[in-house]
Every structure is written in C-alpha cells, then in structure tokens.
Amino acid sequence: MHDKLPPTNPRQQQSPAPKEPASRRMFLIKLGVLLNGIVALIIGIPIVRYLLGAARSDNDYLKWIDVGNVDDFKDGETTLINYVNPFADPWDGETRKIPAYVRRVSATDFAVFAVNCAHLNCPVRWFAESQLFMCPCHGGIYYADGSRASGPPPRGLFTYETKIEDGKLFIKAGEMPTLSNQAQLIQEIAPCAGTDGFMPG
Description:
Strand content: 25-35%
Oligomer: single chain
Number of helices: 3
CATH architecture of the largest domain: 3-layer Sandwich
Number of domains: 2
C-alpha cells in the first residue's frame, strides 16, 4: 500500500551520469589504434619484403625464360628481343620488359648478350652493316661475338646462359648478367685459399 517515495537525498534524485561521453571516448581510442595499425602495416610491408628478399639465395632470382622458337632466329644473324622480368610487379608496366640480343651461331649454338655496355651500362646498338655493337655514350665497340673491339669497355658484352628444349630457346634471367655474378660463381666453384690472390697449387 505504501508507494515508493522519492529518495530524500538530493544526490540520489539525480539521474545516473550519461555514458555517452565515455563510449565516445572509447570509440575514438579504438579508431586511433586502428588507424595506427593500418599505418604500421603500410610501413612494415616494404621492410618485411626487404628482409625476406635479403634472405633469399642468388639462385632464387634466376629463372629459365622462353624467348622464342629456335626457328625464329636465322644463322649468323643478331636479333633484338624483349623478355618479361620474371620477378616484376604488376605495376611495373613497360619497365618489366628487358631487351637482349640473340645471335644464332649455328643450328644448336646461340649467344644471348645483355644490351648494357660493360663500361657504364649504357644500352648498345647492333649495326648489321658493319657487324658491330656500338655504345653511343662513350664509343665502346664490340664484335659480333660480343668480344671487345675498342673503346673504354674493359671486356666484352655480358652473356646469358642458354639452353634449348622442345625447339625453344631459353635464357637464365631474373638479374642482369655481370662480371661480379660470374666472379662469384667462379669463387664458389674454386675458392682461393690464401690472401695473396693466388690459386692453391
């Protein structure tokens, strides 16, 4: 029969504090954490890719690439080709294509040259009339077999490894052939024992 009377304490008469500011604060905190996580992810992906890339062996960067049918190349002729870098990203566009020169020496013998001059990596041009490769930057000249003819280059053109399978010509590509790569391969096969630079007898 007794109805509930309102509390006599004025503090008890006040309605409980609204929870809206607290919930808004938590929402902003969570939003800030989320945004920071996204930024950290964006920054971290290239770093992780770099670290994983450094852990890969040199052979991981080389693949056999089909550059065409053997019959597409004529004996004694040098042909400019373009192959797609097997480790290119979709957004690389036209830079994925890497030029090279293919020379058919005989029915089963091919020489594939990098277009980069052995001096300072300028792209060389092939002149069929003179049967010479010429570098427009500093006047380097190479014979048809890629050996040095004259000019500042210290050596001949760099060459790719080749093989023929099922009537197709393949080159081992993925990184540009250089003297340092070949020197590293030689060192792995026959390492020097001393510090005087001489091979062990």
